[in-house]
Amino acid sequence: MTPTDQLRNVRTNPRPKVLISGASIAGPALAFWLNRYGYEVTVVEKAGALRDGGYPIDVRGTALEVVRRMGILPGLRDAHIDLRRLTFLDGDGGEVASVDPHTLTGGVAGQDIEVRRGDLTRALHTAVRDDVEFLFDDRVDTLDQSGHGVDVTFRRGGRRTFDMVFGADGLHSRTRAFVFGPEERYHRYLGYCFAGFTMRNTFGLSHETVLWNTPGRAAALYAVGGGDDVHAFLNFARPRAPFDAFRNPEAQRDLVASVFADAGWEVPGMVAAMHDADDLFFDTVSQIRMERWSVGRVALVGDAAYAPSFLTGQGSSLALVGAYMLAASLADRDHAAGFAAYEHSTRHFVTVNQDQVGEGDAALFPATARALERRNEMLRALGGAVPAAEGRPAHSALTLPEPMALRRA
After folding, report:
1. Whose CB among 101, 110, 141, 173 lies 3.0–4.6 Å from 304's, allowing a Cys bridge?
2. Tens of pLDDT along 340-349?
């Protein structure tokens, strides 16, 4: 079917109705491209509004081309965080090494961007808000597939039928649970837990990250600029995921406090600030690995389908690229053929990025004294130099197809 034929069909046939669950990164990116290809899009989000703030995130490699094609790259460059230094400390707070951040991330200075998560979410929402329907403070309560579509009931009482439904609702996706079964089937725990929150910048930090380590424990302070607040981060190795703490913030705080009870440097103050923080985020360091990303008329995208873990630095980029590839695969195909094309074209890129880290293999957070010393030796040897890249990096391991000419009639 030619683009002209597709455009004619859009003008003469009702626009297919689709629902996207999740309005963070993958959701609005998918909404943008599906709207472009002629779909009538609704996005449902359990939060009452866009989530502002959040940790800084990277947009690198292929994902940069996605945001360029969306027209939001200039604004993201304006919001770019100029992180200038990454300093590593030992257990006593002494400096081990201070390096250029790109030395370790594999990023390219002047090309890759790092922004606050809220800045990216807001840019994506702004790009699509006038063309799609957003339902905030709501969520899918039931989802039932039939021959004619997907019947959905919402928590706030509405009921609708959609031609397709997409789960872009993160690592702990409800859409995935509805259609594919319990998270435990797909959850790959990588041996670490973390807690993140903001606290007062009483340390004089500016445009830098300071990372303290002892075997199996890490504490970081990330100063986005020279402002009054810093992002605090506490990470620790644990043999089994503490699933019983996921829905109990006090249990989370108690667990973290017990792990860091005898820690030095600035950690006691960080633990105290954690107890008072109103933005604590606690989770495991995990991946989602699935043999397939769709069933019937329901498909997953982003962390819901293939969370790579923050250790790769590629979660947001995979979400952006996956959304682009999913929409492109559906531009000239029905749902069955489109979902198959999506998996065929995107899975290698996902796997290459997920394979950057293995279970218990976090280079920045060594779990044993010997591994920590090896890492420190490596940091000292770098001497601030950025090593030459070998081959094609994982974050650029996919060339995007050109967007089709079809526009919404």
Report:
1. 173
2. 999 999 999 9
